[in-house]
Write a structure and sequence with these properties.
- By secondary structure, the chain is α+β, with helices and mostly antiparallel strands.
- It has one domain: Phosphorylase Kinase, domain 1 (2-Layer Sandwich).
- Helix content is about 30%, strand content about 30%.
- It is built from 2 helices and 4 strands.
- A 4-stranded antiparallel sheet has the order 1-2-3-4, with no helix packed on it.
- It starts with 7 loop residues before the first strand and ends with a helix.
Length: about 80
């Protein structure tokens, strides 16, 4: 999925790039449902397993106000579940 500033992914409006690495890119976005700023991480290549491991580690070890819940937009989750079956 190619993101640019102004793109919309589910309820998220992409605002600007925050960073990039080997696994993917991180974007600053606005959650239009709750009107809050969030970070969206997109993956490059076959890193899904590694990302899920990272998400589980964060969810298990960190309970802090500035750590947001890791979720999958419905449109992407639906695509992923079809590939997994």
């Amino acid at each position: 999925m190619l993101l640019t500033s102004g793109s919309v992914v589910g309820p998220y409006e992409i605002l600007s790039p925050l960073g990039a690495g080997n696994m993917g890119d991180v974007w600053k976005a606005r959650d239009t449902r709750l009107n809050r700023i969030v970070a969206i991480k997109t993956l490059k290549g076959p890193h899904t397993g590694r990302f899920e491991q990272e998400a589980r580690a964060i969810a298990t070890h960190y309970v802090a106000r500035h750590i947001m819940r890791v979720t999958c937009p419905e449109s992407l989750c639906a695509r992923r579940s079809k590939k997994d079956t």
